[in-house]
Structure formats: structure tokens, C-alpha cells
Design goal:
It is built from 20 helices and 32 strands. By secondary structure, the protein is of the alpha+beta class. The relative contact order is 0.07. It has an 8-stranded mixed beta sheet, with helices on both faces. A 5-stranded mixed beta sheet has the order 2-1-5-3-4. A 5-stranded mixed beta sheet has the order 29-28-30-31-32, with helices on both faces. Helix 5 runs antiparallel to helix 6. The structure holds one RNA strand.
RNA sequence: GCCGAUGUGGCUCAAUUGGUAGAGCAGCUGACUUGUAAUCAGCAGGUUGGGGGUUCGAGUCCCUUCAUCGGCUCCA
């Protein structure tokens, strides 16, 4: 007999060799029906796993991330089974679960939408057939032979690349068997609610030098109601697409004449400038100075910085008087030149130099995506030059700024710390000091973070901030990177208390990341309903008829004098029509003025569809100003 | 860059098997002077992304090119 400690803290005795699903069944029938995987001493295991010794066991259902993964992984096998039934010549590649669904890669002509429907039908059949899913293992040579005979060359390659000691397992469901580490459900029956969502190309093993395969994306849930909710959320996200809203609200647009180069329209510029003013405000408060460096600098500079050698493919270059120049893809070399233009004492450090630098990067056409991925963008960059002892405090300062900014907008975000990669420059000691500085700063601030071992830049470790948008997509925005390399390459110095020259450590950091991308994310996050302090037009004055235009003008002037961004609608239209348009423009405050208001010096206030009633104009101004000053959401 | 899809007035979309490019909204003109999400009427607006081809005839079929969309890879 063995002792199994369960999630609720209780322990139960089972015969040695009892499987995870047996234990679930022992606990309750319902649990046995919903089990997707087991968590055995902290490791995710297949539900068929026999328990051989005393352990801690947690039963995972679809409600857990691991359970979802197992469930959807089974869905991906059902997809592959359906494809093999309909198109037996298709070769299988891989088919994992993703954060919100699953996919399977096939070596075959791309599927048409009609074929996708056929596949979905066949999948429904497979589910209905209630096929038992069995697991078995094979020694390496037999596994290879098995897949070779099946003609599955990609699987053979996968097996050959498995580590020496790997257990090579297969999952069989009726006429379909796949190489797979699992875990899986025990029958196809449970996968009741699924949908194939799209077809796309994907490289074998994610390498662009490899063959392009055909990938089918899908998602699966235990209940059709949940699937429906998911699909509705996707629809809602589409409505929030910043490209659509940006156009509707007259914020920005794209033209064929400048692929990847956004055009900001008057209202978009107001939004952008408001964001920039806010940025300046907090950075001034935090002791930053602002610089502005040239857009075009000569080749020698880029060779010194290493960009000419390592980043040239992404740089636009030009020739001036027979010499090579490059349009800057990054601001750091310019910042370094500014630092070096005067001498620095240790007493001056840290030097915090901000720059709203417009950079150009030659991105490949297929990767452009609205404002999220462009060829020209404004980085809210800053470079901090400091002594090693100052690392920790400086990092903390930057993290505070980033947290303040993200929290202001109500963003969720997570933090990742990337450490020294294999191929890197600098001494062990430098890396140690720097990485510890980052780590201690995060620990001191009580931040939780993921550590990506070996994922840092070759010149130093970094902290990345990932925002979550309304689609659940994450965007890397803020980043803090330590750099020993550039100060070295540029022979950067400060004079220490010992009257000797020392090399400062440099931080590169951005908060928004790219103002353009950040505006894209904000647009989707708020679905165009920006907070009043940020929105391009804060109030619209809507006269009931021409008779009240004089009063409306007076209201507009008073609001303008108070610094409120206001517009008026003097067209000969009904009030309902004017309100509709102003609402569609997402203007937060609509001020209807007619006979009553003109007489009493009031405005009838409507905000985001809510009727706030008539208010004295000065009261309204006081209230909206308070809202703006507090930057309320 | 790669795989797939798409491209029709400012916007959103129509147009049997190839057979006269239409509508709504927006715009302009006029009437209405309006009380909380679309007043009515009239007018104007298009070499169907560009180029080439097949055909008596191309928005529709073919080639090519550009852009966009969904992915892959890369990334702020």
C-alpha cells in the first residue's frame, strides 16, 4: 500500500500501481469524468500513470491551465486523425496546445476553407465514436521503424532528436497513432465543443530555412457555452482593433505610399502629445534631462557601436558627399556622444538622459501590423550612466516609473528577467554585479518575475515588461537593459573620487517602448474610450438649434479658456443626430445647450451614455478639471 | 522574407455561368429650427489597387506587381 496526499491535505491509502484516474474515480465520479491530467509531486502526468510510491497528487481538470493543455492536446490529435482519414497522404509534423487552443502542422497543400469544414465534420465523427485513447512505449529503434513504416518522416526526425534517456511514448486512438509525450484524456468523447479557427503557414521547427508547412488552428472547450463565449470575445476584440478605431476616430491612418509608416491625424497628434507631456512630467520629476540627437549619423559611428556589423539589415542607409550614413535604428550611440561631449565627475552620476527618439527600422513587409509593428516609431528612450554601486537604486527608480505609468492605465503586466547568454561579452564579475543588481532591485520592490536563463542581450542582462491587451496578447513594452559593451566601445569615462578615470555602466530603458505601439495598445484597451485627460476631444457642445448658437459659442470659449479640449456642432441637425455622432466619436462629455440652459447658464451633461443632468457651467468645468488633473480612468 | 486570403466611390458592402458597375452612410445643395444614438428631398462621386494578357466583350479568367489581413520567423 502507498500513501497519497491529496490537495485538501488529506491522505488516502491505495494499492501500489493504482492509476491517477482510479484515484480520481475513488474520490468522486464527477472528478473522474472531468479529470484531464494529474499533478504528481509537482509534475504534470498522464492520468493513466500508475502510482508506485508515497506521493502528493493533485487532480487537474479543465479549470487548470495544465488540464486545459491536456484537453486541447487531445483535440489536436482528433484533428490529426480526421485529416489522416480524409487525406491519408498528409504527413504529420507537430500538434501542441497553445494558451487558448491548439494547432497541428501538416505537410500538404494548404487546406481550403471548404476542406476545413469537412475536417471539422470528420472530427465530430471521431468524437462521437467515443474512441478509447491508449498509451504505449517503444524502444528507440522500434519507434523509428514504426514511424518509418507509416511514412511519417517528420516523426522519425523528432524521435532521432530526442535525448538518449527519453521515454518514447505513443498515443493510439483507433486508426490513429501519434508520437506524443502526453498527457491525454482517455477517450475522444470528452472533446465536445471545438472549432477550427484558421489556416496558416508555419515553418517546420519554426526555422525559416525549413519547409513551410500548413498549420490548422483550433480551440476546444468542455462546454459549448464556453466556446461560444470565447468566440464572442474574439469578435469583441476585432471591434476594438486599433486600426479600425484609429481610422474611425481620426487618430491615425496608413497609406500605400508609406507601408509601415503611420500617418498621425490631428486628433492622433493631440493624443500623442498628451502622452508625451505626461512622459516629460514624470521624467522631470524623477531627475531626467532630455536630449535630442540627429536622425542621420555617419557610418563610422555605427561601426563603433557595432550596429553596422550586426544590425545593418534593419537599417536604412544613405550617402552624403560620397560617405555612408545611416538613419538611426536606435538612440544609444547619439546618447553616448552627448555624454562624451563633456567630462563627468563621479559627483554628477547618475546621469539620466531621456530622448524621445524617432527611429527607423527596415522591417520585412510581412511583419508589419498596424501601429504595433511599424518601420518608424518614437522610443521614449533614456540612458542612465552610473557607477556599479548605483545599479540597484537606478533600476528601482525605473521600475517605479514603469509601474506608475502602467497602473495609471489599469494594465496588467508581468516581468521577465533575462540573464547572461552563452555568447556574451564582459567579465564574469561584471555580469554578476549587474544581474544581482537587477534581481535585488526586483526583490526589494516585491515584484514577482520569471527568470529567462541565458536570454539576456550579449552586452548585458535585462528586465522586460509585458503588457496584456484586450485579446490576451502580450506586448513587450518597457525594458531595462544593462550595458557594459557600449561604454567600452565608446571609451566612456567619469573621474572618480580617487582622481582616476572609470568606466560608467549604462542602462538603456523605455517605458512605453514605442509611443506608436503604446497608442495602439491603449486604443484597444479602452476600445477608443480614452480617459478624459488623454482623449483628443474632451467635451462637445451641442446646441439644440441655431437660436442657441450664441450661448454655445460662449460655452465653448469659456471651456477653451479653462484649457479643456472642446468642439461644437453647429449643423442644422436634430439633437439626437448630434449626440449619436459625438458618441461614436467617443467624446466623454456631451453638453447639450438649449433654451433652459441658455437662460440659467447651465449645460445639460451626458457622459458615455449616462445622463448627468443640468449643471452650472462653472461647476461642470470644476468637475472635469478635477477629473483631468487626477488622470482618472 | 515565407505560406494562405483579400483588394469595387471618403467609409461599409452589392454585382447569375465573363454581358450596361449598384446601394446605404458620409459629402454638396435646398427645405425643416429641432430636447438626448440616424429629418426629408435633390445632386455629385468609380479607368473596380497598378501593369500586362486571354476574349467580340473582364470587377469576374490568367500572369505580374503593390498594398492589406491571418499566421510563421523576427521584434519596441
Amino acid at each position: 500500500m502507498i500513501n497519497v496526499k491529496l490537495k485538501d491535505g488529506t491522505s488516502k491509502q491505495y494499492e501500489k500501481g493504482t492509476t491517477v484516474i482510479d484515484i480520481a474515480r475513488d474520490i468522486s465520479e464527477g472528478l473522474a469524468r472531468n479529470i484531464c491530467a494529474g499533478l504528481l509531486n509537482g509534475d504534470v502526468v498522464d492520468i493513466r500513470t500508475p502510482i508506485l510510491e508515497d506521493c502528493e497528487l493533485n487532480i487537474l481538470t479543465f479549470d487548470s491551465p495544465e488540464g486545459k493543455r491536456a484537453f486541447r492536446h487531445t483535440a489536436s490529435h482528433i484533428l490529426a486523425q480526421a485529416v489522416k482519414r480524409l487525406y491519408p497522404q498528409t504527413k504529420l509534423a507537430i500538434g501542441p496546445s497553445t494558451d487558448d487552443g491548439f494547432y497541428y502542422d501538416f505537410d500538404r497543400e494548404p487546406f481550403t476553407l471548404d476542406e476545413l469544414e469537412e475536417i471539422e465534420k470528420e472530427m465530430k465523427k471521431v468524437v462521437k465514436e467515443n474512441i478509447k485513447i491508449e498509451r504505449f512505449e517503444l524502444p528507440r529503434d522500434e519507434a523509428v521503424k514504426f514511424m518509418e513504416e507509416a511514412g511519417e518522416t517528420y516523426k522519425v526526425e523528432l524521435i532521432n532528436d530526442l535525448p538518449e534517456d527519453a521515454v518514447i511514448s505513443f498515443y493510439k486512438q483507433g486508426d490513429f497513432t501519434d508520437l506524443c509525450a502526453g498527457p491525454h484524456l482517455t477517450s475522444t468523447k470528452a472533446v465536445k465543443a471545438f472549432k477550427l479557427t484558421s489556416v496558416a503557414g508555419a515553418y517546420w521547427r519554426g526555422n525559416e530555412k525549413n519547409k513551410m508547412l500548413t498549420r490548422i488552428y483550433g480551440t476546444a472547450f468542455t462546454k459549448s457555452e464556453d466556446l461560444k463565449l470565447y468566440l464572442e470575445r474574439i469578435e469583441e476584440a476585432k471591434k476594438r482593433d486599433h486600426r479600425k478605431i484609429g481610422k474611425e476616430l481620426g487618430l491615425f491612418t496608413f497609406m500605400d505610399e508609406g507601408p509601415g509608416f503611420p500617418f498621425f491625424l490631428p486628433k492622433g497628434v493631440v493624443l500623442k502629445n498628451t502622452l508625451i507631456n505626461f512622459w516629460r512630467e514624470i521624467h522631470e520629476k524623477e531627475g531626467y534631462v532630455e536630449i535630442s540627437t540627429p536622425m542621420i549619423l555617419n557610418r563610422q559611428l555605427w561601426e563603433t557601436s557595432g550596429h553596422w556589423g550586426h544590425y545593418k539589415n534593419n537599417m536604412y542607409t544613405t550617402v552624403i558627399d560620397d560617405d555612408d550614413f545611416a538613419i538611426k535604428p536606435m538612440n544609444c550611440p547619439g546618447g553616448l556622444l552627448v555624454y562624451k561631449s563633456t567630462q563627468h565627475s563621479y559627483r554628477d552620476l547618475p546621469v539620466r538622459m531621456g530622448e524621445l527618439g524617432v527611429v527607423h527600422r527596415c522591417e520585412k513587409s510581412g511583419q508589419l501590423h498596424g501601429l504595433m509593428r511599424v518601420r518608424c516609431f518614437t522610443q521614449d528612450d533614456a540612458h542612465i550612466f552610473m557607477t556599479p554601486e548605483q545599479i540597484k537604486d537606478e533600476i528601482k527608480g525605473v521600475v517605479r516609473i514603469i509601474d506608475e505609468v502602467y497602473s495609471l492605465f489599469g494594465f496588467k503586466y508581468h516581468v521577465e528577467l533575462s540573464t547572461r547568454p552563452e555568447d556574451s561579452m564582459g567579465s564574469d564579475e561584471d555580469w554578476e554585479v549587474a544581474t544581482n543588481g537587477l534581481r535585488e532591485a526586483l526583490d526589494d520592490l516585491g515584484m514577482t518575475y520569471v527568470v529567462n536563463e541565458g536570454d539576456g542581450a550579449f552586452y548585458g542582462p535585462k528586465i522586460d515588461f509585458h503588457l496584456e491587451d484586450c485579446l490576451g496578447r502580450t506586448w513587450q513594452c518597457g525594458t531595462i537593459q544593462l550595458d557594459f559593451q557600449l561604454p567600452l566601445r565608446f571609451n566612456t569615462e567619469y573621474v572618480g573620487a580617487d582622481n582616476e578615470k572609470h568606466r560608467p555602466i549604462m542602462i538603456h530603458r523605455v517605458v512605453f517602448g514605442s509611443i506608436e505601439r503604446f497608442i495602439g495598445i491603449l486604443t484597444e484597451h479602452f476600445a477608443g474610450n480614452f480617459p478624459t485627460w488623454l482623449t483628443p476631444v474632451q467635451a462637445a457642445v451641442l446646441p439644440i438649434s441655431e437660436k442657441f448658437h450664441d450661448y454655445a459659442e460662449k460655452v465653448v470659449e469659456t471651456l477653451k479658456d479653462s484649457g479643456i479640449r472642446v468642439q461644437a456642432d453647429y449643423r442644422a441637425e436634430k439633437i439626437g443626430y448630434k449626440i449619436r455622432e459625438a458618441r461614436l466619436q467617443r467624446i466623454p462629455y456631451l453638453l447639450v445647450v438649449g433654451e433652459k440652459e441658455a437662460e440659467s447658464g447651465e449645460v445639460a451633461v451626458k457622459s458615455r451614455g449616462e445622463d448627468l443632468g443640468a449643471k452650472k457651467l462653472d461647476v461642470f468645468i470644476k468637475e472635469i478639471k478635477e477629473e483631468i488633473d487626477s488622470k482618472a480612468r
